[in-house]
User: Fold Cell shape-determining protein MreB from Streptomyces spirodelae.
Amino acid sequence: MAKRTHSALSAASSPFRGRDIGIDLGTANTLVYERGRGVVLDEPSVVAIDTNTGKVLAVGAQARQAVGRTPGSIMATRPLKGGVITDFEATEGMLRYFIRAVRDGKGRGRSPRVVVCVPSGVTGVERRAVVQTADRAGARSVRLIEEPIAAAIGAGLPVHEARGSMVVDIGGGSTEIAVISLGGMVVARSVRVAGDALDSAIASWIEREYTIAVGERTAEEIKMSLGSGEFVPVRGRDKHTGMPKVVQLSPEEIGEAVERPVRSIVAAVQAAFEECPPELYGDIMERGMVLTGGGALLHGLDERLMKETGMPVTVADEPLGCVALGTGRCLEEYDKLESIFAA
Ligand SMILES: Nc1ncnc2c1ncn2[C@@H]1O[C@H](COP(=O)(O)OP(=O)(O)O)[C@@H](O)[C@H]1O
Ligand SMILES: [Mg+2]
Assistant:
């Protein structure tokens, strides 16, 4: 009895407890941060579904293996595209699976409170859908936090100060650009051009120039190899002859292939500056912008942004983990950061 009183008290004074989790629901990767432990799960946002029964067969890395390789009765999908949820059922299945995976082996404790990070471009309807999804996936309560704010906190920017901090988060489906001051976004832009757009630009470029069809995973590998500075062999079926063909792509060719989406990202960053109040613009001239998200690792993107905006640009230490770490910080300091939650 005494024990129960105690736990009720501590629950009241500290709304978030042990098993509470923060979820970076990304279009490419979902990361789960567990309060007091750190990032405990990092998996691709992919679900494999049996199309006959609608059952979720696999989630995460296991499901990703199946992308582009599934027989007719299995569909491997990415339930988020362009920074929004495009398949609600699959998203729910994925979230439920991840929440269970995190809770596994810890007895039956109370279901966790959950903070989910959403892209700033999502609409009210989509936000409610995220909350509902996490709710039905087994969360006790759900709060939302804007992705650029989480990314900025995770990158160590002083978002609470009366000073402009700028973050450019380049994920799989969207690029989120924000200027943050006093814990809020003064400028926020979201464009649906990011890692995926780079991949498909590479695939169509190869198809056009060399008449070879390549899948999205191959295109992504080519993109990631850009940093090596070496030629990349590309294998596939020649669409004209029907025969196998191998070509060697130079880094210059890959650069040419991604030029259009890169230009769109640069243009979006430039447009954000046009909306930026003068004082904050001055702050950013001094301190620069920080790139987060996996797309921040695209070789040469930081220099390109520096050249075209005239601003200092740095890549965050762990660009792929920033949003999850920032969401985690909000869990750890829930009371202090209350004002940051979007809903
Ligand atoms: N070294 C790299 N070079 C270029 N792009 C990369 C690199 N590493 C990861 N990416 C890209 O980052 C994207 C995933 O980033 P992430 O921040 O996890 O996205 P999201 O938040 O949308 O899930 C993918 O498009 C992936 O191809
Ligand atoms: Mg992200």
User: Anything to note?
Assistant: Confidence is low (pLDDT under 50) at residues 1-18. The longest helix spans residues 88-103. Residues 24, 26, 147, 169, 171, 293, 323 surround magnesium ion (ligand 2) (CB under 6 Å).
